[in-house]
User: Which sequence fits this backbone?
């Protein structure tokens, strides 16, 4: 007897429906949803950053409960210092949200390894924070601590953007310069590949 196989018609119907839907539609709608969230979140965070950096007295006014006998108008040096530097960090987060929105045509970066979403905005924000902390004298040793930490993050980040990965890989041959052909015949050495590349260019 010949075996009779029954087909799942409902499954075939679902497959036809899924085949009729273009695969790019779901990705486009998902990207637009993420982009909308990123823009709204960046706008709200940047608004709070402006309040902390430019209008810190507004936060003091909003934090009053009305039970104080003598309301303070001016902020203390510590409050102004913390508001300014937290505002700078929030601005960096808002910039990272905008710069890393998904796109159908992504921009190719110079170094693919240096593509951390917070590398560029946080490095520049910490550099600015270190500069401002270095020129602040009314909060004691706190400004020195913030200056050291921010300068480390900012300086290291800028160095990473400029030099990390570029000096270890040959631009001409793509070989890793950390390898060597000395003593052992390493075919992947940069010097060996450079010689072979020159020979090919002469031909």
Assistant:
């Amino acid at each position: 007897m010949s075996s009779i196989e029954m087909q799942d018609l409902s499954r075939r119907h679902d497959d036809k429906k899924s085949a009729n839907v273009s695969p790019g539609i779901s990705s486009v709608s998902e990207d637009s949803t993420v982009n909308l969230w990123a823009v709204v979140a960046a706008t709200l965070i940047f608004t709070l950053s402006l309040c902390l950096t430019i209008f810190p007295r507004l936060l003091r006014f909003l934090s009053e409960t009305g039970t104080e006998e003598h309301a303070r108008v001016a902020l203390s040096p510590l409050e102004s210092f913390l508001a300014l530097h937290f505002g700078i960090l929030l601005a960096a987060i808002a910039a990272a949200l905008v710069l890393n929105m998904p796109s159908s045509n992504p921009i190719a970066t110079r170094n693919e390894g240096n593509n951390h979403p917070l590398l560029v905005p946080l490095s520049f924000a910490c550099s600015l924070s270190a500069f401002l902390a270095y020129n602040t004298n009314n909060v004691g040793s706190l400004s020195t601590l913030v200056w050291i930490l921010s300068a480390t993050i900012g300086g290291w980040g800028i160095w990473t953007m400029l030099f990390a990965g570029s000096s270890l890989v040959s631009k001409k041959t793509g070989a890793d310069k950390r390898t060597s052909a000395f003593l052992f015949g390493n075919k992947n050495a940069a010097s060996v590949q450079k010689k072979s590349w020159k020979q090919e260019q002469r031909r």
Observations:
- The two ends are 71 Å apart (CA to CA).
- Residues 196 and 202 are 10 Å apart (CA to CA).
